[in-house]
Amino acid sequence: MEIKRNIQKGILSEAMYHEIALIREVAEKRNLSEKDLAKLYEEQIIL
């Protein structure tokens, strides 16, 4: 519960920042837009 609250407040751990950097790196290599990433995220939530 506390982790979710921190994420909503914009407080992220070092590991989260690292994961975001990795996602951005892969997205750039694959030429994915923010819309593409949002669509992929939504598809994963549905699963």
UniProtKB/TrEMBL annotation:
It comes from the Bacteria. This is Uncharacterized protein. It comes from Bacillus thuringiensis subsp. tolworthi.
